[in-house]
Amino acid sequence: HRALVQDFGLPSPRIAFTGLNPHAGENGTIGTEERDLINPVASQLRGDGINISDARPADTVFHEALRGQFDAVIAMTHDQGLIPVKTLDMWGGVNTTLGLPIIRTSPDHGTAYNAAATGSCRPDSLIAAIKLATHLANNRGGRNG
Question: What is the pTM for the complete model shown?
């Protein structure tokens, strides 16, 4: 929440949690992590004034965000979050870690050793990561904390 306000300039960010289990556990039928852990934490955060959803089905929440219902989605797994990113922009996606005292961005493809070995690298994601880091630094007023 704080990073979305500070780094992205969103005064009242709307955040969604994905569920860990398919269909966000269907009230414990497919898994209990949502009912027993994720949703109680979301409730505590809402009590602290953060606009955050209970666990949402990962197969629809990114569509909801794309249509404007949420400003950010917290994915419970790596692939859960990167599938929609790479579907929308395979070459220009950026991985960033929110909430750090320093700005951290990287190309969404990581080290890409295989692409480097074959000479098939593209600079798009690296350029996008540098541009995002610059944008975040400007929003922080040029400071790192």
Answer: 0.85
